[in-house]
Amino acid sequence: MYKLFRYAIFQMDAEKAHDFTLQCLKMTAHPLFYPLFKSLIDAPKGLSKTVMGINFSNLVGLAAGADKNGEAIDGFGMLGLGFIEVGTVTPFAQDGNAKPRQFRLIEAEGIINHNGFNNKGIDYLIENVKNTHYKGVIGINIGKNKWTPLERGKDDYIFCLNKAYNYAGYITVNISSPNTPDLRQLQYGDYFDDLLKEIKSRQSVLAKQYNKYVPIVVKIAPDLNDAELVQIADGLIRHKIDGVIATNTTISRDNVTGLKYSEQEGGLSGKPLQYKSTAIIKRLHEELQGRIPIIGCGGIDSVSDAQAKMNVGATLLQIYSGLIYHGPKLVAELIRNIK
């Protein structure tokens, strides 16, 4: 059934297909249609695990970017996902970069996006999170507005943190998207230390205010060299960050050279990112030595790749592009088989 659906939506522009799919997922969560669609989807229960003090019903989650505004949480939840990360969301709504900005590299099962944090703002997302019936863990991925100067970037993250804290299972600090100018500089040096210091300080205040501890996770790029990765690991440990997502999309085109759309600007996800993200997880795990859990993300399209990420140090997993190419069946296979 999904093969027919995929064939149809692949005739559409990638972003229009994405928007159409979100509308379909929203519709499946409607009380009139939910029982029917629920009966058509095989959503098994998997291995539960407590990570960052949170109980995850299974190890498989949805990566940020699929549902930027939290509009289809219930629909995605119906697939059986143990956790759903919404966003990236910024303090104020922004249109993102010029269209077209999403491109499928079908031969390689890859996707390039140059979205630029297009979203409807933190307040809109929070209202959707408040109204969801999904019982799993919801992560909220936060970023900075494009027009905010880098030296004031931390202000945007604190703004979003304040808004999201009481409604999130965990909060992800996205400093690794390649589609917002200079954003990745926040992964380095004084910018990195200053941001993490401010985030943790505010987390402490909010924990007392709401009488609960909401973990902070940092999402990193796959394009880091060894020295940069060591520096990031050191910063994560020193600032007592609760978790790390490895990885975001890549600016490398090594595995897709010559393919249609391969020269488009943006971050590449999907199968071409598979081994690169696994290598980052492995090296990061060597540095962290289990002190901080790693959420493995990047090119997961099969049980074998998912297990490879677990074997080198991932504690949880996130999918997105693999879901586009392989459909809900992939979710069920991963939940059943990952150890």
Automatic annotation (TrEMBL):
Compartment annotation: Cell membrane
Organism the protein comes from: Haemophilus haemolyticus
Subunit organization: Monomer.
Superkingdom as given in the UniProt entry: Bacteria
Coiled-coil ranges per UniProt: none
Catalytic residues identified in the record: 177
Main enzyme class: oxidoreductase
Protein name per UniProt: Dihydroorotate dehydrogenase (quinone)
InterPro entries: Aldolase_TIM, DHO_dehydrogenase, Dihydroorotate_DH_1_2, Dihydroorotate_DH_2, Dihydroorotate_DH_cat, Dihydroorotate_DH_CS
Single GO biological process annotation from the record: 'de novo' UMP biosynthetic process
Pathway stated in the Swiss-Prot or TrEMBL entry: Pyrimidine metabolism; UMP biosynthesis via de novo pathway; orotate from (S)-dihydroorotate (quinone route): step 1/1
Keywords attached to this entry: Cell membrane, Flavoprotein, FMN, Membrane, Oxidoreductase, Pyrimidine biosynthesis
Cited CDD domains: DHOD_2_like
Binding site for FMN: 64-68, 88, 141, 174, 219, 247, 270, 299, 320-321
Similarity-based family: Belongs to the dihydroorotate dehydrogenase family. Type 2 subfamily.
Listed SUPFAM superfamilies: FMN-linked oxidoreductases
